[in-house]
Amino acid sequence: MLAAAAARAGEPAGEGAPAGRGQAAPQTAPRAVLTLADQPLRMIRGAAVYKAGGGVAVQKDDILETGDAGAQVEAGADAIVALGPHSRVLVAGLAPAAGSAVEMELLQGWIKVYAKGRRAVVVTPALQVALASGSTIVHAGGGQDAVFAEEGEQQVARVDDKGKAGALLTMPAAPYAGVDAGKPQPVAGRPPHAFVGAMPPPFRDHLAQAPAVKNAGKVPPSKEREADFADVDDWLASALPARRRFVARFRPRLSDPGFRKQLDRALGQSADWKPVLHPVRPSGGSLF
């Protein structure tokens, strides 16, 4: 069993209110913030690629991709998300508002979510994990999508290649469940040595807020360029829930001939992209 499941180091410390003199300064709306990043992350916001480091605010639908080091994003003391190295995640919901859900879509790699008193959902190409309150560790990729329910009762379901979740498996006793290609539900049990050995070492500890981050939420990400098809091809081809928003999001990139050509070659006949790439006149004649 994991050491983190055996004991707790206490709850994350709350955010202290700064003392002021005289009239209080205007308060900016709280935001989710990238607080720990040993190396800058690649961020895909809208249809552009950015470099993001500590202090950058994270928005809904941002795609965060780590390199050789992990990272941490916080939306207050009760919503903390850690990413392992070489992980790719889309932020579907991570607001500081109390009671709002934490929703993450993990395409590849490792994620750990701590949500105290909040519902949290992590979706991978093969699993859907939900908890009302607690902590979960999820891995995606290599045909080995799996979850370790570190704290709190969790429900997990297998997701098919169309993104539809199957029957729920409740995990009150067994802390681990992984995909088995021959079974309709994830298989519960003890975490295998391979899973534990591959887990990022920081995930063994209880997640806590980072020390004060300079200019938290006020550091702008650095734009590098518009997204190439190679930056987003795996996302566009996935069956993750955010796929439904990708057509509107990346449609502006169709003005780039290279992007359009590669997209058409890969997904031009898909239900999502065919109407956009090959619209048909009422008479049946193609516009292109």
Helix count, DSSP H or I runs of 4 or more residues: 6
Overall average residue pLDDT: 88
Poorly predicted runs are 1-27
- Principal-axis shape equals globular
Give the tally of β-strands: 18
Strand content: 25-35%
**Main sheet properties:** 18 strands, mixed
Helix content: 10-25%
Q: Class by helix and strand content? A: alpha+beta
- Element pattern in H and E: HEEEEEEEEEEEEEEEEEHEHHHH
Radius of gyration: 20 Å
Termini gap: 59 Å
Q: In a nutshell, what does this entry contain?
A:
This protein is of the alpha+beta class and 288 residues long. It has six helices and 18 strands.
Features:
288 residues, alpha+beta, 18-stranded mixed beta sheet, 6 helices, single chain
What does this protein structure show overall?
The chain is globular, with a radius of gyration of 20 Å. Helix 3 packs parallel to helix 5 (257-267). It has an 18-stranded mixed beta sheet that branches. It starts with a helix and ends in an 11-residue tail after the last helix. It has 288 residues and is an alpha+beta fold. It is built from six helices and 18 strands. Helix content is 15%, strand content 33%. Strand 16 (176-178) and strand 17 form a beta hairpin.
